[in-house]
Design brief:
Strand content: under 5%
Number of strands: 2
Order of helices and strands: HHEEHHHHHHHHHHHHHHHHHHH
Shape: globular
Radius of gyration: 22 Å
Length: about 500
């Protein structure tokens, strides 16, 4: 019974559990219940990844109606890989959240936080697993509405403006995606992704399909915060509760990158998108600009959450750059970075949240002397920061290694140099925080002298991600095998030849 419905369970269980969390109210039981549900979804995702790697694609027909007439849930190495990262980070964030939300969210809103978190998890899981283009939009809206709620829960009222901006931009993005999907349905008469792919291939570049592609790519670019459509992200990450920021930075935009990959390689076909429509050059230019522009913006910020927010937009540039190279190695690098960035940015935002929990501020000035006062928290920030830079023995190095390798395979020497140069900017914005923590003295007032280490419930998930940063930076076989299998599968099903050097 469990194995038979495994593909649907990561969606159904959190979806059913969300209203139960609201009913349970303000109690320790609510936190434990939400965490258990997320952990169970992570367990199911791990089994789905193992099954996808050993057996290939898994298909589940909802209600017993076979595709393309019914709604299909389809799991392969690509979406199972991302799904595991999403559910694992969700579980760790929920463990972390118990102390964090006590500081940043009114107690009356705690049940709403857990409910919205589980709804967001169900929506993100549905986006990854669904084999139906319209249901992808439905799950996207479920996760988005939950996300707007999560961002607005902070005691800092600036979160309401950030959530409203996020809502407006997110709604525009979702509308573009819906219009694009509607155009595809108008031309092909189907919404099943594999059926869509077959019929789009037969249509051979119809004007309606071209327009649908344009709408979908713009809509998805807003959702994943691709430069210059990223304006909603820095305020949302800055003013949302720390637990929310850690969850969203590690999952939401990564799932949106996956959606772009899925539309390009599964539905439209990479040959059509990149060769005929020439979108590889567009994505490559936008990715490079994102890396340098947003890394530079990160160096100019004083709020550390804003620093990491701009860093996230720059890191999304690395993922999109891998996709734009139109090669198995490039796509593999992008997929690896989706997983690795979830580990890096989750640990960084958890560390910043722990500082806010003890100090009450995340300004760089508040980090002065914390290397001695909060040694475990700042050690976690340091290791995750080195990973963002791409120092060897961390996951960030693995991502950039494969990205540089993919560029060199195609004789893009300048591109490889730009990837490395982007890392130097990361040295600056991470270095500014480390300088304050380790090389500047704490203020002499009494409140600063009373600062102590974060609670263990915050340190354990934080250090779990830090250890994962190191482990997967040394033992790369797991992530590279999963990403390589996913990349090869996507190219085989996309009917595209790699770009020649």
């Amino acid at each position: 019974m469990f194995e038979q419905h495994l593909a649907a369970l990561p969606i159904i269980i959190p979806l059913i559990a969300a209203p139960i969390a609201l009913i349970l109210g303000r109690s320790l039981l609510t936190w434990g219940f939400a965490t258990l549900i997320s952990a169970w979804a992570c367990y199911a995702s791990w089994h789905l990844l193992l099954a996808a790697l050993s057996e290939g694609s898994l298909s589940y027909a909802m209600g017993g109606w076979p595709p393309p007439w019914g709604i299909e849930m389809r799991v392969d190495a690509a979406n199972a890989f991302v799904l595991l990262a999403v559910t694992a980070v969700s579980t760790l964030v929920l463990v972390y959240s118990k102390n964090s939300i006590e500081k940043e969210i009114d107690s009356a809103q705690h049940p709403l936080f857990y409910t919205a978190h589980l709804l967001c998890l169900a929506g993100l899981s549905g986006i990854l697993v669904t084999g139906d283009a319209f249901n992808l939009f439905v799950f996207l809206e479920i996760s988005s509405l939950a996300t707007y709620t999560l961002v607005s829960l902070a005691r800092d009222r600036r979160c309401l403006t950030a959530a409203f901006r996020y809502l407006v931009m997110g709604t525009i993005g979702a509308t573009f995606i819906l219009i694009g999907v509607g155009m595809l349905y108008m031309k092909t008469g189907t919404l099943n992704m594999l059926d869509l792919a077959e019929r789009i291939h037969l249509a051979d570049g119809n004007r309606t399909i071209n327009t649908g592609l344009a709408f979908i790519m713009v809509g998805v670019s807003i959702k994943l915060a691709l430069f210059p459509l990223h304006a909603w992200l820095p305020p949302a990450y800055t003013h949302a509760p720390s637990a929310v920021t850690a969850f969203l930075a590690s999952t939401a935009t990564k799932v949106a990158v996956y959606v772009m990959i899925r539309f390009i390689f599964t539905i439209f076909g990479a040959d059509y998108v990149f060769r005929e429509m020439g979108m590889d050059l567009i994505l490559m230019v936008l990715a490079i600009v994102a890396i340098f522009k947003c890394s530079y913006m990160a160096t100019a910020q004083s709020n550390v959450k804003t620093v990491l927010a701009y860093s996230s937009v720059a890191q999304i540039g690395y993922m999109v750059l891998g996709v734009s190279l139109v090669s198995v190695t490039g796509l593999m690098a992008g997929l690896i970075h989706i997983f690795n960035h979830a580990l890096m940015k989750g640990a960084l935002f958890m560390a910043v949240g722990a500082v806010f929990y003890r100090v009450g501020s995340v300004d760089i000035k508040a980090f002065r002397g914390l290397g001695k006062q909060m040694p475990l928290t700042m050690a976690a920030f340091t290791i995750a920061g080195l990973s963002i830079i791409g120092v060897p023995l961390t996951v960030g190095f693995v991502s950039k290694w494969y990205l540089v390798t993919a560029a060199l395979e195609q004789q893009h020497w300048i591109l490889a140099f730009l990837v490395l140069a982007g890392s130097l900017l990361a040295v600056i914005y991470i270095g500014r925080v480390l300088e304050a923590a380790y090389f500047q003295s704490a203020s002499d007032d009494a409140s600063a002298a009373e600062v102590k280490e974060a609670p263990w419930l915050m340190l354990i998930p934080m250090w779990s991600l830090v250890i994962a940063n190191i482990y997967f930076g040394i033992e790369t076989s797991i992530t590279t095998e999963a990403a390589s299998s996913a990349s090869e599968w996507l190219f085989q099903n996309s009917k595209v030849l790699e770009v020649s050097p």
